[in-house]
């Protein structure tokens, strides 16, 4: 692991966090936030602005910033893991049908059960179903596994999107439909503490587990037989990694709905810059993904008065980035 | 020691690929497996490496059935050099060789000892100069040397190679063979390799295992056993055809 690079990126993320704390439609400075928080903790009398700042920061801005970091890290890191273990630099949680599957599951949980544990389980089941369907379809056409996996993912995504659409069609047009539609577009604007507290332990565990799995991921990226001959129990190891990657993605879907392309483009660009060794690539992808979503969400929530859904905005930014990275990749070889 | 006693194997719903194969590879020995396409050479290597579900205990590694080994402990005895390396990502040569240390620890980065082993391996195969190059940019022969170095970093005493010179030009073939011979002689490493070139088996010395239709048709000292006649028989050629076509390397005609 390139420890210097990882520490630099971590410091970068912290600095960015402090910087974007101040941004928003209600601008405050870091010192104001700190002063207000100290007053709040020590139960000193507060001015009206100070109590407003405390309310804004603790109940709106802080959960949203933490969610942005967790979602960005999860999507980008699991994208990097999928790309390496499927030996295909063009896959991502979105392309493999994980996000569509997880959102279908979560939609059932939200609309039918309205309970976090059930939503969590259903969204994980949906995510696993999404990626399994892609893999199954790719096995039907073994002559060109790379292409077959992409097409399998395409089919799996549309299959589950169809289910989500069915849900929209059945949803009550007054409340549930706008709710569901807006959520599926991908947004961090409705992050709440109860939701975040429920999913964040899974996400933090998953992010740490995957970031430290570089050794196995490296070997798996050479194919099953080579990985086995290098001393890895490749089948169980691969299942474990796919399971955890899908878990963190399904948690991110619960928080934000579908944020496409982050899981494809960020690992792609990071690999281009620092090389394919997963020992460094995995933690670096997590940090860069977190940074990317944190900054994008800050733009989304502070530049326009009417808030744009984050998912739409990341897609718009990621397309040119992806085109650029493909072009760079080609010219380098 | 690799001890195969009466190994038979069939893929799902098909005829036997291997039928009653027996042989023994002692430490420090070299065996070349020779035979026509589809005779089961690669299947034999995969069976020994534990990739295939063998129904009866017929393969013994240091006296223990191969099924009883965990993957990491088997990897410390057997290393594998596949015919084609499956990398799609441009790993550096050094990273590729470091992967030989996969089975030694599960978590986190590579240790100082891992790095020392890799330096030694790169040095032994004389590719230290390539260590920062991208694996995908190397020539076929250089790639094979990197995978051999990875096998050395794995610290295993037996190296199983599947047609290590296939697809290589003459100078790269010689490079790979010389490296193997040197490691065999200096480091007393054991090789089990499949090949389509009888003269390579003669050059490397050691034993030759001739396979036909999944069974061992002959086994013995490569220098004694490999003659134009036995090769013609093995590949179902008309007697005398090799000599007639002038295809007999000098090393064979002396035998």
Largest sheet of chain B: 6 strands, mixed
In N-to-C order, the SSE pattern of chain B is EEEHEEHEHHHEHEHEEHHHH
Low-confidence stretches of chain A: none
**End-to-end span of chain B in angstroms?**
29 Å
Cα gyration radius of chain A (Å): 20 Å
How many runs of DSSP E, i.e. beta strands of chain B?
10
CATH class of the largest domain in chain B, named Alpha Beta
Strand element count of chain A: 0
So what's the oligomer here? heterodimer
- Structural class based on helices, strands and sheet pairing of chain A: mainly alpha
Task: Give helix % range of chain B.
Answer: 25-40%
Quote the CATH topology of the largest domain in chain B.
Rossmann fold
Structural notes for this entry:
The complex is a heterodimer of chains A (333) and B (255). Chain A is mostly helical. Chain A has a single domain, classed as ABC transporter involved in vitamin B12 uptake, BtuC (Orthogonal Bundle). Helix content of chain A is 78%, strand content 0%. Chain A has 14 helices and no strands. In chain A, helix 3 runs antiparallel to helix 13 (278-302). Chain A starts with a helix and ends with a helix. Chain B has 255 residues and is an alpha/beta fold. Chain B is built from 11 helices and 10 strands. In chain B, strand 1 and strand 2 form a beta hairpin. The longest helix of chain B is centred in the last third of the chain and has 18 residues, at 170-187. At the A-B interface, helix 9 and helix 10 of A face helix 2 and strand 6 of B.
């Amino acid at each position: 692991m390139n420890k210097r690079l990882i520490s630099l990126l971590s410091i970068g993320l912290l600095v960015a966090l402090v910087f974007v704390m101040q941004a928003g439609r209600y601008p405050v400075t870091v010192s104001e936030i700190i002063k207000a928080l100290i007053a709040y903790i020590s139960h000193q009398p507060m001015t009206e602005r100070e109590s407003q700042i405390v309310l804004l920061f603790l109940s709106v801005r802080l959960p949203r910033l933490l969610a942005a970091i967790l979602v960005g890290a999860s999507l980008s890191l699991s994208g990097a893991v999928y790309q390496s273990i499927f030996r295909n630099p063009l896959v991502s949680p979105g392309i493999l049908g994980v996000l569509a599957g997880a959102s279908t599951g979560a939609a059932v949980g939200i609309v039918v059960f309205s309970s976090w544990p059930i939503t969590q389980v259903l969204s994980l089941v949906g995510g696993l179903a999404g990626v399994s369907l892609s893999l199954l379809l790719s096995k039907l056409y073994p002559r060109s596994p790379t292409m077959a996996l992409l097409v399998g993912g395409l089919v799996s995504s549309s299959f589950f999107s169809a289910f989500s659409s069915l849900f929209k069609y059945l949803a009550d047009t007054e409340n549930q439909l706008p709710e569901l539609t807006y959520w599926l577009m991908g947004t961090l604007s409705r992050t709440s503490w109860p939701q975040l507290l429920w999913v964040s332990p899974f996400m933090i565990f998953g992010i740490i587990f995957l970031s430290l799995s570089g050794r196995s991921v490296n070997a798996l990226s050479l194919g099953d037989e080579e990985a086995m001959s290098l001393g890895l129990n490749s089948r169980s190891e691969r299942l474990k990694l796919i399971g955890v990657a899908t878990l963190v993605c399904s948690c991110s879907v619960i928080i934000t709905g579908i944020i496409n392309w982050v899981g494809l483009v960020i690992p792609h660009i990071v690999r281009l810059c620092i090389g394919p060794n997963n020992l460094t690539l995995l933690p670096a992808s997590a940090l860069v993904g977190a940074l990317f979503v944190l900054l994008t969400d800050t733009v989304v929530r502070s530049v326009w008065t009417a808030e744009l859904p984050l998912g739409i905005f990341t897609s718009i930014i990621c397309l040119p980035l992806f085109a650029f990275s493909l072009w760079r990749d080609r010219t380098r070889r | 020691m690799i001890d195969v006693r009466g190994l038979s194997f069939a893929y799902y719903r098909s005829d036997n690929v291997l039928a009653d194969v027996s042989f023994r590879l002692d430490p420090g020995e070299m065996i070349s497996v020779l035979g026509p396409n589809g005779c089961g050479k690669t299947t034999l290597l995969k069976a020994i490496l534990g990739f295939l579900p063998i129904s009866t205990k017929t393969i013994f590694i240091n006296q223990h059935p191969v099924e009883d080994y965990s993957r990491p402990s088997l990897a410390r005895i057997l290393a594998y050099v596949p015919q084609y390396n499956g990398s799609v990502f441009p790993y550096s040569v050094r990273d590729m060789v470091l992967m030989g240390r996969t089975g030694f620890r599960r978590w986190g980065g590579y240790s100082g000892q891992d790095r020392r082993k890799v330096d030694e391996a790169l040095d032994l195969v004389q590719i230290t100069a390539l260590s920062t190059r991208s694996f995908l940019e190397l020539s076929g022969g250089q790639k094979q040397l990197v995978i051999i170095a990875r096998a050395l970093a794995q610290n295993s005493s037996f190296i199983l190679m599947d047609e290590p010179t296939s697809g290589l030009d003459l100078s790269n073939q010689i490079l790979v063979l010389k490296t193997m011979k040197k490691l065999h002689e200096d480091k007393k490493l054991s090789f089990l390799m499949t090949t389509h070139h009888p003269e390579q088996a003669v050059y490397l010395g050691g034993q030759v295992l001739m396979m036909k239709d999944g069974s061992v048709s002959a086994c013995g000292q490569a220098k004694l056993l490999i003659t134009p006649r036995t090769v013609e028989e093995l590949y179902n050629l008309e007697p005398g055809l090799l000599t007639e076509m002038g295809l007999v390397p000098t090393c064979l005609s002396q035998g």
